[in-house]
TrEMBL record:
This is DUF3298 domain-containing protein. It comes from Lentibacillus cibarius. Residues 115-184 form the DUF3298 domain.
Length: 205
């Protein structure tokens, strides 16, 4: 059953004790099978962020806050980000991790970056060149040289924009925040899959 209307999103939360609350989204729709698929994927990614914080901590956690943002909920495309901040006892600073999910509701699947483009298109090089130009134009401070994105680089969709992002400390200092690179679908229009999420975003109707 194709889904093109905005999906109803409800916030849920899980608590691990005082000062530890993770809020995550759950979808509500008529297609129960698709709803279950989406919600299980979101729950899994919520737990992955929690597990990463716990495994990285050298002491007991003093505070954990999990949040989400809906980036796109139109044209049969649901795209969202989840973040998790945690700090352990006696630490001077905490750390935040982020992940994202993009669902093609018309085709009933979760998208990887490669799924957004035509087969055989050199999307990694094209996107990497755009990011390099943005780093220079925006005078973004780097701690590691950026060369190229991975084939399954983290991303989300926000209306007519593909947003590529990296984790803290991956290429930029902590003070810069998450390095986020918005790219208009029209910069990629010749290589995007016309029947995929970006193709739908690029139409004017």
């Amino acid at each position: 059953m194709p889904v093109s209307l905005p999906v109803q999103i409800e916030p849920f939360s899980v608590s691990g004790g005082p000062n530890q609350q993770v809020i995550y989204p759950q979808a509500r729709m008529a297609n129960q099978s698709l709803q279950g698929f989406i919600n299980q994927s979101i729950i899994r990614k919520t737990q992955e962020l929690i597990n990463k914080q716990v495994s990285d901590m050298s002491g007991s956690i003093a505070e954990m806050v999990g949040e989400f943002e809906i980036k796109n909920n139109q044209r049969g495309v649901l795209s969202l980000t989840q973040s998790n901040y945690a700090i352990y006892h006696m630490a001077a600073n905490g750390i935040t991790y982020m992940n994202s999910s993009t669902f093609d509701l018309q085709n009933g699947k979760e998208c990887r970056l490669r799924d957004l483009f035509k087969p055989g298109s050199n999307y990694t090089r094209r996107i990497s060149d755009i990011i390099k130009r943005q780093i220079a134009a925006r005078d973004i401070p780097t701690i590691n040289e950026f060369t190229r994105i991975s084939p399954d680089q983290s991303f989300y969709i926000a209306d007519k924009t593909l947003v590529i992002y990296f984790q803290l400390f991956e290429y930029t200092p902590h003070s810069f925040g998450f390095p986020i690179f918005p790219i208009s679908v029209y910069e990629l229009q010749d290589i995007i899959s016309e029947t995929g999420p970006l193709g739908r975003m690029a139409t004017n109707n």
